[in-house]
Every structure is written in C-alpha cells, then in structure tokens.
Design goal:
The chain has 204 residues and is an alpha/beta fold. 27% of the residues lie in helices and 24% in strands. The protein has one domain: Rossmann fold. The protein contains six helices and seven strands. The chain has a seven-stranded mixed beta sheet with strand order 3-2-1-4-5-7-6. The longest helix has 11 residues. The structure holds S-adenosylmethionine (SAM). S-adenosylmethionine (SAM) binds next to strand 2.
Length: 204
C-alpha cells in the first residue's frame, strides 16, 4: 500500500481493488468486533462504517440488530462489498467520508484501518467529522494502526498523536492489541482495538 501522495484519492484504491491487491484485507470481521457486539455495543442503534472496503463487518452488525450505513469512495470496493454481502449489499454506498452528506447522528462509527489510510494532514479533519457525525456519548471504535512504516501508507498513529487528535472531545475506554492471528503482515502486529467515547462537552 504505497504512494503516499495519492492515497486520499479514490483512484489509488480503485486500482488496487480492481487488481485484487488488498494486503490490508482481513477476509473476515475482526474477532474483537464479534465480542464487542455482544458485550459492549449494546443496545443496537445506528452505525456508520467509513472506508468499509470489502464490508465483512456489515453482516455482523445487521445480525446484531444495527442499522448500518457503510461507505467507501472507490467504486470497485463498493462493488466488491456488495458482491460479498449479497442481499445486504444495499447497506453499502459509494460516498466520500469528508464531502458526502451522511445522515447522522450515529450511535457508533466503526472503522478498521481507515484513519491510517489517510495522509496525516487530513487527520484533524477526520476527528472533527467524527465529532459532528456522532451523537454526544456515541462511540468511535475499531482497529487502529500504531506501528511504524518507513514508506506510508499505512500512516502510523502514536499515543501522543491520538491524544492530540481526540483528547479534547473523546475519552479512551478500551485499548489493547488485536488478538494473535488477527494482525496482517502489512501492519506488523501493531494494530490496536480501541473504543473512544465522544464526551458531551469538550475538555477545556
Ligand atoms: C486500508 S483500506 C481499509 C478497508 C477496510 N476498512 C478493511 O478493513 O479492509 C482503506 C479504505 O478506505 C477507503 N477510503 C479512503 N478514503 C476515503 C474517503 N475519503 N471516503 C470513503 N472511503 C475512503 C479506501 O477506498 C479503502 O477501501
């Protein structure tokens, strides 16, 4: 997943989905999500899945009673997710997280390796967009990349950067490495399962 300059443009991803060159694709929902759907993400509500890629998680959320809006801006990713999801394919739409109109508020935004696919210049915009799409007290949760990469993307987060981005609006509730067997070579074992909660009022 190289070529930093273009990774905020759909063509960068379109090319890779068309060629089925998908080193970030887990091929299934993360095991952490399966357990959070039972223990943490209750009651079910409305979830947004930005940068959904193949969209495996859509099925898990629907089965747990969630209303799902999954988006990706690469047409080939949307087509792939719709093929994989069959009758649930209508939960996936082609849309840009930053510029498309998305009908919030959402109770939860779930993402896996979407933030690290974006150039870091866009991260403050990502954080601001999350605060406007979530209801107060809502959750931002999923798999985030905290490793190193000499030639990004993926662009690694650090705890300091995460604090700078989210610290004044969110509180970190859950933070642990993904389970053994859930890391992909491209992320080198540095994915973390995190659950952030949007505070009703920003921390001064
Ligand atoms: C590293 S992939 C992760 C895909 C998926 N979440 C997964 O876990 O396999 C990043 C995804 O974000 C999508 N993406 C990047 N920028 C986007 C944007 N501004 N709006 C919507 N999707 C975007 C890409 O097309 C790509 O599918």
């Amino acid at each position: 997943m190289k070529n930093r300059k273009e990774s905020d443009h759909p063509d960068f991803w379109e090319e890779r989905y068309r060629a089925e060159r998908l080193p970030w694709d887990l091929g299934a929902e993360p095991v952490e999500l399966a357990s959070a759907l039972v223990s943490e993400f209750r009651p079910a509500g409305r979830v947004l899945i930005p940068g959904c890629g193949s969209g495996y998680e859509v099925r898990s959320f629907v089965a747990a009673g969630w209303e799902v809006c999954a988006i990706d801006f690469a047409p080939a990713a949307v087509a792939r997710a719709q093929r994989i999801l069959g009758p649930l394919g209508d939960r996936v739409q082609q849309a840009d997280f930053f510029t498309s109109e998305l009908s919030g508020p959402f109770d939860l935004v779930y993402e896996r390796t979407f933030l690290c696919s974006l150039p870091p210049e866009r991260w403050p915009h990502y954080a601001a967009r999350m605060t406007s799409l979530l209801r107060p007290g809502g959750w931002l949760a999923g798999v985030f990349f905290y490793g190193t990469d000499p030639e990004p993307p993926p662009h690694p987060l650090s705890p300091e950067t995460a604090h700078r981005l989210f610290g004044s609006h969110f509180r970190l509730h859950v933070d642990r490495p993904v389970s053994a067997g859930q890391s992909l070579p491209i992320y080198g074992g540095a994915e973390r399962w995190q659950i952030w909660q949007l505070l009703p009022d920003p921390v001064p």
